[in-house]
């Protein structure tokens, strides 16, 4: 049997190689490249982010990735897998929501007190509404924070609208101007951006080359760079990641996680506030510069997806294992208790589940399995976990969940779920989106501001069971 499998493998490789050489190369031959390097370079050329790069930019990326086109290809594929670039997505922001179709059109709905919906007004929207001023511009990534929205185009430009501040909108201490229509972020015009993440008191962006830049992250610790809190210019994140390409960033309450791609494998770095152990280093101390989370090496886990909740974090490994750490209040770590974990710990209750995606919010966690099943655990407020409402011993309508439980209400839609997004803010009641493989969007949880895209009736403020949002993202 083993010999037969080996024979089949070599036959597949032979067919793939023959197919590669039968097609015109459309690029000048490089006699210094091996066949495997040549094939990897050809596959890199087919990636959307790689295509517009100049020869010099490509060589720079190659060196950052370790001097190999195979490593560049791994970097590009890893970024596409964890960030859904070039694919549809839905973002459950604090009180408002953003939906991006596979064609790059953008819809927004929900709270709009700061113009964060981008429609030129400050009126709430209870139904998904396209952002008209962006017609003809293809959006590949979106980020939503308290009173603020950022959109990334396929050409690496960044549009921002809402609160005219990269700080925490709820505090109101930075910036009083509101921007109600998408405006280009001029300070980023020389950086090809592929992802943005909005945290509390700061915003981070990721460049095509895997460099991380932050805005307005200073305060007393001056974390990540030595600038003032009100500095609106992007500054590169200093320290260990200056020469290591990052494929994904995730922002929580005063901290940032970076999924890095190195020749030795994938790794996670964290920087910021260590309260509750959310930086994953076994302590609760702050880190002024990015620091490698070493626990993944001990656990023999290759991180593939990283998620930053308000006070806790999670990672999915290449083997499908899920790790969580940070503040365990309400059971959001899935370990059967409410204890804090200062270093990543495998969620044993998911041992028989091969996970491919994880999402975290304010004391809430969702895990999506390879076959599309969804599990959730943590705080049960606002019905954002998707489980049927029950009354606990204290009379609370939505009980907290300490161990991962299958979201049976999503199982009933008979479609494979590919993405979960939930509110990551300590100031808003949470809502959750489930996106299916065919582009259908389902929402549940808090909807008092229209953030579900579903108009509620009478005195309703939430939806317990997932309901189809009238928008096709496919």
From TrEMBL:
Claim: Signal is one of the keywords in the record: yes
RCC repeat residue intervals: 104-155, 156-209, 210-262, 266-319, 320-371, 372-438, 439-474
Boundaries of every RCC1-like domain copy: 88-422
Signal peptide (from-to): 1-19
Entry-linked Pfam families: RCC1_2, WD40_RLD
Keywords on record: Repeat, Signal
Domain of life of the organism encoding this protein: Eukaryota
Official protein name in the record: RCC1-like domain-containing protein
